[in-house]
Each structure stands twice: as structure tokens, then as C-alpha cells.
Fold this sequence. Notes:
Blueprint: H1 2-9, H2 18-35, H3 46-65, H4 71-95
Helix pairs in contact: 2-4, 3-4
Amino acid sequence: MATAFKAFINSPVGPKTTHFWGPVSNWGFILAGMADMNKPPELISGRMTAVMCVYSGLFMRFAWVVRPRNYFLMATHASNESVQLYQLSRYARVQGYLEKKEDKDQQ
């Protein structure tokens, strides 16, 4: 047990590196997004939420290609992507982007 813990502490993605603390700090985005789920969707910034989706998508790719592969960073950004896509869907629904459009033939 102590050997496994020591190996984690000294690993290339352990708590002595930015490969660990970067993802930890990004959990603030996820927690903020989850807290915003209780707020009215009219307050959501569509542009900022879309930017957060692109940001997390890009960093998921980065986490996959960087050596050593950083699964913690990838999981963090996958979680953020999920939260932000949900918020973006709430924004789109309120703005009327997700309404069903009637065919002109039925009118």
C-alpha cells in the first residue's frame, strides 16, 4: 500500500506536477456549471457556454496526445463538456432554437 502511494506521489502525473494540479483547478468550472443548473436559463450566456464547450473539447484531445497520457485531465474536461453541453441545451431551448418547426404543407 505504501509503495503504491509513493509511486503515485512520484509519478509523472502525480501531485508534484502540473499534470495533477491543472485538472484539480479545472473542477472549479464543473462545480460552477453544476451550481448554475438551478438558475433560470435566461441568465445563461450562450457565447461563453459555447466557448467552454470548445475549450473542453480541445483539452480532451490534448490530454489524450500528451505524453504521459493524462487520463485525469481528460476525465475533468469530459465532465466539463457534459455540464456545458447541458447548459447550452437549456440556453438553446429558451432561445427557441430547439422548437419543432411545422411544415408549410400542414398550415
